[in-house]
Structures are given as structure tokens and as C-alpha cells.
Specification:
Helices cover 52% and strands 19% of the residues. It is α+β, with helices and mostly antiparallel strands and 356 residues long. The longest helix is centred in the middle third of the chain and has 22 residues.
Length: 356
């Protein structure tokens, strides 16, 4: 059930009207929502690679965030369900107020946390590894607590099949973008003069070797944030919160360790901030560099030291898979997508080198 009745005043009115909008599909839903928010609306922020919009609103003298997706909105439905499931398990998240999914839209009503700055923002601004590490450690400890309270043993083959289905689904989505299919099918990719196996060859190398699959696949799953990259770790002075949990099935903790590896070692934050240089020099040949983030270099070493060898390799593998799986969602921006692909190729190359 919704938690609308547990609070009062303008916030209760706002939540009630959002629920009405969720159940009432209307033409021009976005403008209708803005009209409903009226003078409460302070700012609207749209993402270029997800269908969600953040509306910063004021109620009872406080600022809140309404995260909205219009229409079917399966991603947002899953996120609403994640918050509800966490509360049902006795693991409520402090920013969550209420949320609902309907035919017209799905929404989350969240407390506003700071000015929206993330660990990525701090890192790209030159923050020290010590400052970054405190926020990352808090976020990771919170994630591990969720996992440990809910974990259960599963057949590793089940976890592997989940990864295979995810990649197969994203490959079908990639079919709408010829340039992306070319990247995914490339046998060899040359980056800065170094030839490396393409993603398809790397995946075959793992999937066709049962010993590698067994070594890289965990046998425990549980509740995790599911998207613990540094762009989802919010900071406000010395405080830390995590947003944008990924709904859906229970996941291995290495899924989120992989998200951190993706940020700290893979260059994800720099690419998303446009802090990279990319030039195509041949059919599958590129000059490519991401901005060096000194704080992340040190943190990557610390994260690796926090894991045993197998856990780190599993996390590195997950990070490479994350880069591949996200490509269709970014494909409207071809250069950015190519940069993310090359980050994934680089992590696969690092993984296979360590497995050799």
C-alpha cells in the first residue's frame, strides 16, 4: 500500500494528486503534470539516457524530488517495487516517502538530499581519495548490510542464465542501431594502437569454458541497490545516500561491486560527464582516452584490496558486462555509446589477462 495517509499538509495533497495523475492517462501528460505542480515546481531535470524526469518541488516549506516516468514505465515500476519490498522487509530507505505506478505514469516522491552532488562530481572536481573513499565505503557498507540480511544460496547456473538472458535482451535492442551491431560483432578492436578482442569474442571465451563460468559466477543472491555506481551515490557534506535502486530479481553482491569497478577503474563517470577524447582511425580502430581521475585511481586499488582474488575477478567481470548491457540505452548518442563500448573492451582485456 501507499504511505500517503501517513503524512499531512501540502505533501499529502501533492502525493494524492500524483496518484490521480498516475491512474489517469491524458494527452500531453507531461504538460498536464507541470500544470498540476504549478507554483510548487522549482526545477525539472531530464536525463538523456533514461526516460525519467526529476521534478524538484516545494511543499510545507521543504524541497522534495518527484521522479517520474510516463506511460508503461517498467523501470520505474521496478524501482517503486524495490522501495516497497525494502520497507516490507524492515529495511526502509530514509529518502523514500511514497511511490505509485499506474497507466498514466509511475512516480517516486523522495526527500531532497543536498544539492544533488554525487561522488562522481566530487571526483571530477579533484576531491581526494580519502574524501571519496569515505562516501563510497558508507554506500558499499549499506549495500552489503542489505545483502547479508536477505541473501540465500542458489545454483550458480541460475545466476549465469540471468546474465545470459540480460545480454541477449540487450543485443536484440541493439539491432535497431547498425553502428552498435557492428561494434558488438567486431572480432578485434584496436585502441591507441593496441589490438584487443572484441566483446563477442570475450563473451565466447568465458561462456564456452565451464570452468571460467563457474569461477566468475557467485552462488548467493540477495537484495542490493543494483546500480551502485558513483553517479548514484549522493553526498551532502559528510553525509551519504544512494538513489536509483534497480528493481527486479535478487542479485549477487558482485553485481554492485562491479558497478563500483565500472566507476573507479572503467572510466564510466568521465564518459558520462563528456570528459573523454575519441577519434575513429579505421573501421574498428580508435584513439580513445578518458580524463584521469586521481582519486579514483587510488580508490580502485583500495577496492581491489578489500576483496579476495576471486571476488575481485567476479566484480571485474560484472563491470565489463555492465558496459555491454547499457549500450542500447545510450545508442541515440553514438559517440558516447562507442566510448562506453571501448571502456568495456578494456575491462574485458584486463579480466582475461588476469585469468590467463
Amino acid at each position: 500500500m501507499s504511505r500517503v495517509l501517513r503524512f499531512r499538509g501540502e505533501l499529502s495533497v501533492l502525493a494524492g494528486r500524483l496518484r490521480e495523475q498516475a491512474h489517469r492517462p491524458v494527452p500531453g501528460a507531461e504538460s498536464s503534470l507541470a500544470e498540476m505542480l504549478g507554483d510548487r515546481l522549482l526545477l525539472a531535470v531530464r536525463s538523456h539516457n533514461t526516460p525519467s524526469t526529476l521534478y524538484y518541488v516545494q511543499a510545507d516549506g521543504e524541497t522534495y524530488v518527484v521522479k517520474v516516468e510516463f506511460g508503461r514505465a517498467q523501470t520505474m515500476r521496478d524501482e517503486v517495487q524495490w522501495y516497497r519490498d525494502a520497507a516490507r522487509r524492515g529495511l526502509p530507505r530514509p529518502l523514500f516517502i511514497t511511490g505509485h505506478s499506474g497507466r498514466g505514469l509511475s512516480f517516486l516522491l523522495l526527500k531532497c538530499f543536498g544539492d544533488g552532488s554525487t561522488v562522481d562530481d566530487l571526483a571530477l572536481a579533484g576531491a581526494s581519495a580519502g574524501e571519496l573513499g569515505r562516501h563510497v565505503a558508507r554506500a558499499l557498507d549499506s549495500d552489503i548490510e542489505l545483502f547479508h540480511l536477505t541473501q540465500r544460496h542458489v545454483d550458480p547456473a541460475q545466476v549465469h542464465r540471468l546474465a545470459e538472458r540480460r545480454l541477449a535482451r540487450r543485443r536484440r535492442q541493439a539491432g535497431a542501431f547498425p553502428f552498435l551491431r557492428t561494434l558488438l560483432d567486431a572480432a578485434v578492436v584496436t585502441v591507441n594502437g593496441e589490438a584487443m578482442p572484441g566483446v563477442a569474442r570475450c563473451l565466447s571465451r568465458v561462456f564456452e569454458d565451464p570452468r571460467l563460468v563457474a569461477h566468475l559466477t557467485p552462488d548467493r543472491v540477495g537484495v542490493t541497490f543494483g546500480d551502485l555506481h558513483c553517479g548514484n551515490i549522493l553526498v551532502d557534506g559528510g553525509s551519504t545516500e544512494v538513489v536509483d535502486p534497480r528493481g527486479g530479481p535478487l542479485l549477487p553482491i558482485t553485481y554492485d561491486y562491479g558497478k563500483l569497478v565500472q566507476s573507479l577503474e572503467g572510466g564510466y563517470g568521465a564518459v558520462m560527464a563528456g570528459r573523454y577524447v575519441l577519434r575513429r582511425t579505421g573501421e574498428t580502430e580508435y584513439e580513445f582516452t578518458t580524463e584521469d581521475v586521481p582519486g579514483y585511481t587510488d580508490l580502485g586499488v583500495l577496492l581491489a584490496a578489500r576483496c579476495d582474488e576471486r571476488l575481485y575477478l567476479q566484480s571485474l567481470y560484472q563491470a565489463a558486462l555492465h558496459f555491454v548491457a547499457m549500450l542500447p540505452h545510450h545508442a541515440s548518442a553514438q559517440e558516447e555509446t562507442t566510448a562506453l563500448y571501448l571502456c568495456g573492451v578494456s575491462l574485458f582485456d584486463k579480466l582475461l589477462a588476469q585469468l590467463a
